[in-house]
Each structure stands twice: as C-alpha cells, then as structure tokens.
C-alpha cells in the first residue's frame, strides 16, 4: 500500500510524519505547555480560520457528485476530497474509537442501533467502534443478552446503516474486534491461546488459523482484528503471558508474520479479510516485578535487537495498524513516544497504517504516568508523537479539539492522522460495501471445518514433557481409568482470557475427550478433588479412592484465566485483584492477574501428591496460561502432557495424544523455571553463561524449544557452504534427520547461532531457523537453512547495524539445550547496512 506524499490542498505527508526528534535516550523532548510559542499559536489560529472558511464552501456540493464516493478514483484522491469537506469537529471525532457493546439494542422487537450510538455520532462524530460484538463478564454480555452470529450481522448492519443514511458525509465506522485466538464473540471458533499457537512451531498452520478467524470476524461485520500480540515474554509472573508467543524474537516474528498474512491476505480489502492490529508497541511483557502495565527497564541495544524485530517483521508483512503499549520505556510512555512512532515505525520501517492507543492509555499520560499536566496536554503529546486513534473516546475528543482550536496542534498534523485512518477505510471497501450478508453467516462462522482446524492446532500445540518407561500412550485395553482434577471438566478453564461465553456442548473437555477415546466397556470415573485456588471444597479423599480402584490415573491441573461475574474489573478491562478477597475464583492468570510465585495454587499439589502415593500409573496433564512450578511432578510423576489453554477442541486433542492417535510434536516457546528466583531464565540471555545458585543450578526445569515424541530421531550429515559477495553473503546449512523409532512423527529441527567474538555483548545463543516436519518411521528428511547478513547483524558500538567478520558456531538439534550437530561459519569481512 502506497500513499501519495503530495495531497492537495495542504500538501500532507501522510506516510512519514513531520520531522521528529530522534536518538537515544531522549526519544521525545517533553515541552511544557507554558513554553509553547505564542507566535505559533497565533499563526495556527489564522491558518485554521482560512481553512474552515474554505471547507464551509465545499459543504454546499451535492452529495451524489462528491469524488470521495467514486470508487474508480485513486484512494489518495478520495481521501483528499473527503478531508476537504470535513469540519474540524468531524476530523477530531473520526479519530475516536468508542466501546461498542452498548451501541446496539436487542429485544423482542429486533436489533437496532442504540440511542447511545446516535448520540455519540451526532455529538462526537466518531469514526470507529471497538468490541461491538464482544461478550464476557466485563461487558456484562451473556449467552442470553449477547448476539448470536446472525444477530451480530444484523447489529453491525443496523449500525452502518445509521452511519450511511443519517450522517452528513455518510462515513462508515471501522469496527475493531478482539481476535487473538478466535473472534471474541458468541458462536465463533475458539483456538488455543497464543502461547499454544507458538508451541506448534508451525507458522503455516497459524496462517491457516488466522484466515479462519478473519473469515468469521468479517462475516459478522468486523473489519479490524486485534492481533497478533508480539510481546516478548520473559517474566511469567506477568499476567498476560498466555497472549504472547513466548521468549524468542525470531519465533515471535515468524508467528506474527503468519497471523498478519492470514488476517489480511496479499493486500488490505479482500473478501473475508480484516486489518491486523499489532500489540503492544513495545516491550510491554517485561514490566518491573511482573506488574502489568508497569515501567520497563530495557536498554537501547536490547530494545533494538530483541523487542522491536518481531514488530518490524509484521509491519513489513503489511500490517495495517499498530497499538501502543501502556508502559513507559526509559521514562517515556509509549503513547507519547515520537521516537518509536515517527522515527522507528514510520520513517525507518515505512509503516503507512494508523496507530491506535490501548484503552485509556492517552489518559494514562495525565494519570498513572504523570507526564502530562491535564487531558488536553495528554492529547497534544500523543498526537504530536504520531498516535492517530484514541481507543476510549475520552483521550482525544474534546481534549484534542481544544488543542487544535488553540493552535497547539496544527491542521496538517490533524489531517495527517485522519488521512491514515480514512485510507484504510477506503482500502477495505467500506464505502462501497458497508453491510454484510446476514444469510451467509452460518456458512462462515463456527463450521465443522473450523472446528476440525481448532483440533488440529490444539494437537500440534500439545507438548510431551516427560514419558518415563513409555507410560504413554495409554492402552485402550485398560478396564478402569480415573480422571481427577479441577481442569479435567471445566470448559472455561480450558479457553483462556479474551474468550466469549460458550454453550457447554460446544467445548470438549479432557474428560469428554477421554470418554470418547476409550471403548464402550471401559469405566471412566471422575472426581474434581479440588479447585484451582479455593480450598473450601477440597475432597482429596474421594480422588484417592477412585485412583486406588483404577488401572491408570489422569490428573488435570494448572491454572485458569476464566473470567466470572463475581470479579470486578478496571476501566481498561483488566481484572481488579484483591489478595484478601473472601470469594475466590479459579482465575490466577489473564489480564491483571500478576503472580509473585509460580506455584500451583490451592490444594492442587497436595492432590497430586496423594494420588501419586497410591502407586497407580499417573499421567499429569497441565492446562495453564503461564509456566508454573512443576518441580515435584517432574521428579515423581512418570508422564507429563502440557497443553496451555487448548481451546474448544482441546479435550479431544489431549485425548488423541494420551491414547496415541496423535504423536505429540509441540515444543516450548518459553522456558519453564524451577524457581521465581531464577527469573529471568530465557535461553538467549546475554553472555557470560550463568553460574549456579547456592540452592540449585541456573538451568530451567524445561528449556526453550523442548518437547518429546513417541518416536526417536537422529541427526547426521551436516554440510555448511559459504558464498561471500561484496554486499552480502549466503551460508547454506544442510543436514539429515532420520526417524529411527516405531511411529510416524513430527520433528521440530532448530538452528541456533553463537557469535563467538563480537564488538558488543551478544546472547549465548540465538534461534535463527526452525522447521516442523512429519517424518515417516524408517524414513529420513533433508533440511536446508540459509543465513544472510540480516540474520547475524548486531547494533554496534557506533550505533549502526553491522554483521561482523569472524567465527560463528552453528548448533542444530531438537531444543535450545540439545545439540545434535555442531559446525562453524567463518566470515572474512564485515557487512554493513
């Protein structure tokens, strides 16, 4: 997508913002209101008066002749024409994205646009809505008062019809929806959360999944999906770890590109395609103390080499929107950081879409961050920094209007932001096709084909952590199986945060999956035993009793991000956590639920220990949103199957693995620590190597990239060739992997690089290639990876990108800690960028 750099009548430069202050660490020079130039304000007021006069004349043109409604004209011309006809109030309003679930009314008479929408449109001239179709305890939308998929289509059509027929310019709304692991709406398919998606190590599969999410969102009127989340998660105490792709920038970048391609296709505007919004820009997942939204302490080099690259990859894949993070970096809030938004995102990466705030993050400047004196100052800071759209309607709105009218924000800056949004609306075809086909919805949402894909993603996400003495797969000849634990038969504990209410029959739990997998004559006994957190209804004795009578025991433990109607929520949607609350829900993960330990909560460990003491074969299945402490289980339980939050078909996928119908091939995208005291424990920490603690070694319990299989693989025949040219090089890495076991299976081959000597400190090893491949038993597969200067670059002492000459060790194997093959690459010269 290209945007003209010369647009009459104001010569707007939409694609690249006005020259920005750049450089580290002063990413934005904060200018107090008291020091703003009076001369500038007077000039801006004069300019605004002239422009408003010109616009008033343009408003007299008959609507049917307006060029912006002519689909045969270039989008740049249409945007230019429409902006020329808008009042300053309409421009400011166009940048406001309000909460959408109160913008429709549903009763016995039908579904229609609400009075609240009409008031917001007439008074605020809004341009976007967020989460119109969302349902969950925060929005107070249930299966009863929320919208079925066909009702959702009726609601969005009613909203758009009001915009088209009852507003002066007929500008449709852009409807943004939460869509990280399925559209967060009733009836949509629920896939594994992002941490599970990353565990597949299969970007092609995730792209296929994203296409389905886009198809379902588009069918009911959503044209913008929030996702992927590209946060680099290195502190599992952080409540939103489940929403991330893990701890490695290369893996996150691959997954992020796949999601963007799946959402958007080759270009914005295709049928069944939606705009992707990248979250959260940037470094949101490593707050001090694990406190969600807290301050972040990262240096320039770490930011450039670890946290920004996944976003860069997704931007270059064509992402149409980026969301700023709540946190500050080196004292500068991301929502007022001109260096991030103007210099890096737009100037260096060429981003031409629009930037949106996270909910209420603009207000956070004069709130929690205390970097703005008042709401008007916060609006000025964000707009000047390059933030286009306000998610809330209260950050910009009257505050931005006042800043424009007083000359603090000039007309060019405002128009540039409006143009970025309008361009995307035109590209989506909203002006030509604002409505959706209500009759086609059942063929596109929650179909059997989509359910099958949800099961496939869940299967590939399952990680076999331990399997002593071939405990798994279980024999179908077992006569009696005990299924125990709080996550064995709880649909919402299986789905993760950002999930809509579900009818019970839609979600397949582990208990249901096991009962469906065994022969009719097998007896399956179920006892919950305990809750995730609440210890008032524990019944371990009953669990032990059924375990003693069983031939095998499956214990399903972990965590929960299941929101309930008893929990209170902040204005941002994050849960309000009260450590002393009497009513204890299962929820210990999900937005707002940060942890100070990573232990299994409640009586879960005691339940596992007493069941294991029966002497019966025990299999532990873990369902959770973050890596939890599995030390005791790793030492005492013979088999552990790890599933994160596996989505609506998770129970079937887990049963497929337990009984050998699917050979697990998932790999960890984040290390599992032995103790909170080890944190951070990510595999690619900077040199030097970690030394042991007094109490334990420094290694994680299970490392990044780890996962077992029911078969065996051997690596051989490593060949490395190098061709160096003046501007770049090509290193080709070849090797063979053979399946030497008794089953077909998936191997995830991983290529790591060690920069042996460098001008700045580099990681102990870095993932630079991976491939998931099914290999038949007795067969062998050749793998080929290519490395270029881009793959080995670093941010040098001179603050420039370069790939330095010297030796690089190549490590190849099935995880970050298991090296099957080792080779060397020797570059004879430096390569610059």
From TrEMBL:
Q: Enumerate the UniProt keywords alphabetically.
A: Glycosidase, Hydrolase
- What SMART domains does this protein map onto? Fn3_like
Q: Enumerate the spans annotated as Fibronectin type III-like domain.
A: 747-816
Q: Which Gene3D superfamilies match?
A: Glycoside hydrolase family 3 C-terminal domain, Glycoside hydrolase, family 3, N-terminal domain, Immunoglobulins
User: InterPro entries, alphabetically?
Assistant: Cellulose_Degrad_GH3, Fn3-like, GH, Glyco_hydro_3_AS, Glyco_hydro_3_C, Glyco_hydro_3_C_sf, Glyco_hydro_3_N, Glyco_hydro_3_N_sf
GO molecular function terms listed in the Swiss-Prot or TrEMBL record: hydrolase activity
Xref: Pfam families: Fn3-like (PF14310), Glyco_hydro_3 (PF00933), Glyco_hydro_3_C (PF01915)
Instruction: Say which family it is in.
Output: Belongs to the glycosyl hydrolase 3 family.
Q: Which PANTHER family match?
A: BETA-XYLOSIDASE, PERIPLASMIC BETA-GLUCOSIDASE-RELATED
Supply the name of the protein.
Glycoside hydrolase family 3 N-terminal domain-containing protein
């Amino acid at each position: 997508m290209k945007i003209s750099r010369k647009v009459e009548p104001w010569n707007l430069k939409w694609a690249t913002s006005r020259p920005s202050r750049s450089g580290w660490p002063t990413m934005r020079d904060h200018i107090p209101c008291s020091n703003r130039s009076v001369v500038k304000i007077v000039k801006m007021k004069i300019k605004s008066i002239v422009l408003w006069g010109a616009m008033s004349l343009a408003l007299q043109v008959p609507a049917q002749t307006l060029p912006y409604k002519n689909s045969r004209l270039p989008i740049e011309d249409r945007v230019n024409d429409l902006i020329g006809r808008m009042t300053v109030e309409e421009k400011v309003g166009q940048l406001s994205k309000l909460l959408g679930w109160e913008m429709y009314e549903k009763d016995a008479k039908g579904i229609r646009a609400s009075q609240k929408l009409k008031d917001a449109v007439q008074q605020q001239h809004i341009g976007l809505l967020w989460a119109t179709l969302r349902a969950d305890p925060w929005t107070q939308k249930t299966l009863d008062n929320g919208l079925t998929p066909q009702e959702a289509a009726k609601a969005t059509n009613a909203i758009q019809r009001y915009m088209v027929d009852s507003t002066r310019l007929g500008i449709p709304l852009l409807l943004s929806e939460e869509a990280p692991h399925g559209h967060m709406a009733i009836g949509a398919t629920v896939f594994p959360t992002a941490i599970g998606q990353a565990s597949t190590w299969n970007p092609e599969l995730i792209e296929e999944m994203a296409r389905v999410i886009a198809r379902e969102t588009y069918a009911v009127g959503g044209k913008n999906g929030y996702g992927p989340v590209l946060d680099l998660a290195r502190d599992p105490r952080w409540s939103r770890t489940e929403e991330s792709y893990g701890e490695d920038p290369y893996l996150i970048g691959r997954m992020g590109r796949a999601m963007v391609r799946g959402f958007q296709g080759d270009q914005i505007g295709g049928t069944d395609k939606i705009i992707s919004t990248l979250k959260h820009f940037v470094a949101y997942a490593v707050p001090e103390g694990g406190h969600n939204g807290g301050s972040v302490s990262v240096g320039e080099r770490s930011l450039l080499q670890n946290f920004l690259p996944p976003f860069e990859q997704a931007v270059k894949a064509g992402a149409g929107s980026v969301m700023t993070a709540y946190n500050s970096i080196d004292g500068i809030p991301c929502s007022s950081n001109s260096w991030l938004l103007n210099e890096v995102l737009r100037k260096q990466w060429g981003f031409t879409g629009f930037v949106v705030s996270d909910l209420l993050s603009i207000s956070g400047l004069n709130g929690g961050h205390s970097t703005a004196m008042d709401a008007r100052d916060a609006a000025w800071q964000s707009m000047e920094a390059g933030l286009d759209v306000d998610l809330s309607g209260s950050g910009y709105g009257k505050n931005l209007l006042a800043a424009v009218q007083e000359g603090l924000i000039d007309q060019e800056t405002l128009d540039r932001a409006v143009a970025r949004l309008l361009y995307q609306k035109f590209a989506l075809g909203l002006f030509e096709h604002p409505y959706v086909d209500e009759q086609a919805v059942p063929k596109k949402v929650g179909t059997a084909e989509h359910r099958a894909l949800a099961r496939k993603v869940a299967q590939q996400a399952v990680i076999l952590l331990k399997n002593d003495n071939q405990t798994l797969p279980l024999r179908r000849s077992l006569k009696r199986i005990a299924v125990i634990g709080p996550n064995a038969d709880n649909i919402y504990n299986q789905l993760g945060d950002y999930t809509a209410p579900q009818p019970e029959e839609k979600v397949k739990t582990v208990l249901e999956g096991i009962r469906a997998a065994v022969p009719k004559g097998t007896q399956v006994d179920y006892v919950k035993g305990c809750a995730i957190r609440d210890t008032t209804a524990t019944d371990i004795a009953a669990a032990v009793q059924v375990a003693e009578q069983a031939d095998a025991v499956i214990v399903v433990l972990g965590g929960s991000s299941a929101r309930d109607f008893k929990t209170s929520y902040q204005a941002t949607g994050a849960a309000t956590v009260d450590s002393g609350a009497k009513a204890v829900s299962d929820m210990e993960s999900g937005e707002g639920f940060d942890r100070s330990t990573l232990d299994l909560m409640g009586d879960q460990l005691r339940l596992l220990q007493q069941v294991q003491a029966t002497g019966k074969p025990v299999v532990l299945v873990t369902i959770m949103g973050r890596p939890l402490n599995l030390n005791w289980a790793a030492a005492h339980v013979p088999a552990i199957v790890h599933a994160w939050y596996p989505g609506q078909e998770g129970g079937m996928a887990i049963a497929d693995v337990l009984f050998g119908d699917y050979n697990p091939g998932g790999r960890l995208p984040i290390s599992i620590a032995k103790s909170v005291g080890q944190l951070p424990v990510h595999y690619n920490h900077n040199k030097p190597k970690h030394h042991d603690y007094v109490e334990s070694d420094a290694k994680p319990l299970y490392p990044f990239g780890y996962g077992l299989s029911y078969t065996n693989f051997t690596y051989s025949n490593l060949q490395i060739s190098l061709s160096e040219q003046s501007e770049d090089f090509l290193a080709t890495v070849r090797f063979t992997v053979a399946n030497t076991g008794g089953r077909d299976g998936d191997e995830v081959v991983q290529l790591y690089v060690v920069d042996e000597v460098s001008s700045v400190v580099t990681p102990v090893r870095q993932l630079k290639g991976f491939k998931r491949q099914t290999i038949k038993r007795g067969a062998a597969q050749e793998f080929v990876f290519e490395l270029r200067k881009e793959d080995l670059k670093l941010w040098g002492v001179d603050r420039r990108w370069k790939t330095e000459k010297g030796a690089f060790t190549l490590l190849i194997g099935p995880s970050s800690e298991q090296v099957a093959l080792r080779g060397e690459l020797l570059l004879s010269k430096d390569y610059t960028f």
